[in-house]
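Shipment paperwork, digital attachment
Item: protein structure file
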Amino acid sequence: MSFPKPFYRWRPHPWHGLSAGPEAPRIVHAYIEITTYDTVKYEVDKETGYLRVDRPQRFSSQPPALYGFIPRTYCGARIGAMSPKAERGDSDPLDICVLSERPITRAEVLLNARVIGGLRMVDDQEADDKIIAVLENDSFWSRIENFSQLPDVLIDRFRHYFLTYKSVPGQEAAKVELDGIYDAEEAQKVVLASMRDYGDEYGD
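Attachment content:
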């Protein structure tokens, strides 16, 4: 029996076995780890590629969009150099948040996302950018080209979530700061830099 190509006999690792997308950096593949309804933080296990429970969220904060990463990206020297307040990249795949009008209620899905901007986050002196995107072919968000076009209240939700989701009352504040937001052109440069960092770290 012959199989069509490409055919994966075994499940590919979502970070290393999938591509960043044929139209990257404008339209990318996003592997979703967390939905907007999750009160548990899930994270892909770097060894097996399966989704692992990282920690239950202690409080009511939930991500304002689908949350995951772009395959075959890596936050290394190039990403660190793009962030003036960071000393290095965080050595993880590049994070991405994806807006969708229709509810997507399950994680471990792969989707096409159109990049519209990003948040330049610094976490304990490491560059931890969050790319912001919209679901490709989503009719509600189809006219949004840049992050700055989003409603102010939604931009505020992104800011608030990423500045507070690691905070624990009574403990020293997490060393997370927002060093600005950027629109689609800069976000595409960040995606490209992370793809090149990946090539340096893991090869093509």
